[in-house]
Amino acid sequence: MPRSWRSLALIPVLALGLAACKDTTKDILDKAEGASTKAELEAALGDPDSLERFGPAEKWTYDASNGTVTFPIAGDMVGPPIAQTAED
């Protein structure tokens, strides 16, 4: 097999390895427990993978290895998280 083909064959293996490094929805929920402000949530989890704004409201979504966790935010206050797993 040519060398370039061997390199291409590693791409799916590397992608699977990176996916395995992501936190689960439970991990994200555990890390964010007690975060009641945007600053506390960002300190606990870092920047969200996606952010949507609706006037003064925001929706921060973090991707997990088995789904997503979304935090509704009104002003500076973090609302209850919504976890969606791949099985849902």
Percent strand equals: 25-35%
Mind telling me which CATH architecture this is? 2-Layer Sandwich
Q: Note the total helix count.
A: 3
Say what the CATH topology is. Beta-lactamase Inhibitory Protein, Chain:B, domain 1
Helix content: 25-40%
Rg (CA only): 17 Å
CATH class: Alpha Beta
Low-confidence stretches: none
The biggest sheet amounts to: 5 strands, antiparallel
Net shape: globular
Name the helix and strand elements from N-terminus to C-terminus, one letter apiece: HHHEEEEE
Amino- and carboxy-terminal Cα gap: 42 Å
The tally of strands reads 5
Q: How would you state the average pLDDT, rounded?
A: 86
Count the domains: 1
Structural class: alpha+beta
Describe this structure in words.
This is SmpA / OmlA family protein. It comes from Roseospirillum parvum. There is one protein chain. This protein has 88 residues and is an alpha+beta fold. The protein has a single domain (23-85), classed as Beta-lactamase Inhibitory Protein, Chain:B, domain 1, CATH 3.30.1450.10. Helices cover 40% and strands 31% of the residues. It has three helices and five strands; from the N terminus they run H-H-H-E-E-E-E-E. Strands 1, 2, 3, 4 and 5 form a five-stranded antiparallel sheet that branches. A hairpin with a 2-residue loop joins strand 3 (67-74) and strand 4 (77-78). The radius of gyration is 17 Å and the shape is globular. It starts with a helix and ends with a strand.
